[in-house]
Amino acid sequence: MKLLYITLLLGISIASARSTSSVIIPPTTSNDPTHIEFIASSNKLNTPKIFNVWTFDAISSKDPSYSVLAAFSASPEDVSNNNTLNVDIYVQAGPDKLYTATSKFAEFAELNTHGNGTSGVWKGTGCSFSASEDMSTMTIHFTHPFEITGSVVLNAVAPPHYPCSPAEIGASMEFLPHFGWANAFPDAKTNVDIKVNGTQVKFEDGIGYQDLSWADINLEDAVESYSWGHGRFGPYSILWPLDMSPKIGELLSTPCSGVIVEMEAAAPNSTIGSIQSLRVEIPFENQVIVAHLTVKNILINEGVIKGGVKDGKMDYSGSAAFEYLSSA
């Protein structure tokens, strides 16, 4: 069955390029002047900007209590002793088994871009990722000395994009003042094979995701709350954008404004956290895609997603991941 990617636009493709570039990110912050980029100047979505975080995740489509989330950071938000380069990973190996690990600080990070695909090595950590030139596949590697070993392989099934537009040169990459976001893998068929603390976590039916975010201020200083998520149900890959209450500036006036996100709070002292369910409506051509996420596991914020076309077929189901933050 052919998947449809639903967020703002469909059928977007990125032309391959043959150029090659390399960037070395030092392990400590600098007081030198910096320039932050928010207008796309190429089709290379994962090239480093400033204060970057590359995020990867995968959820089993059969059982959302099996999942993995990894963040490769080059950001002062993660500074300890002025060092900015490390990797965090969260592995869910069943309903009540959460494993976490943080790498030692990297000696440096090396980012190499071939064509449109960017690969990165956090030197000395055992953590890296590599992408094909056309960005159709990406593999995340974990090896010694990192305490978690194995790999996660993403095979794209949905086109890349920026916050409210296709991934095109000249597009805005800013989803809020001071914050940039590029989504190279909104949805991917994903194979996970990792070992943690003697436990093997392996599934070949994963729903994968990868993005790059960057900023020149702290997110909690900019917004009071936000929600974000992605999943797959029936023929649809869905990614709902941020639902924010901004403290500074205004959200961009774009097609994103047609998306509705409703959250139902969980009971006090709930074991699943503060959110019990999410309902998302995304306008698409002359239709509205409706998705309802019921939280099953708060450890990495995952659950069962159901929905379909409003006033049409609504009995599709699948798995999803989401994030919710409130500074109130």
From TrEMBL:
Top-level taxonomic group: Eukaryota
Record has Signal as a keyword: yes
Protein keywords: Signal
Region forming the signal peptide: 1-17
Pfam families named among the record's database cross-references: DA_N
Keyword Ribosomal protein: no
Domain Diels-Alderase N-terminal: 20-214
Protein name: Diels-Alderase N-terminal domain-containing protein
Organism expressing this protein natively: Gymnopus androsaceus JB14
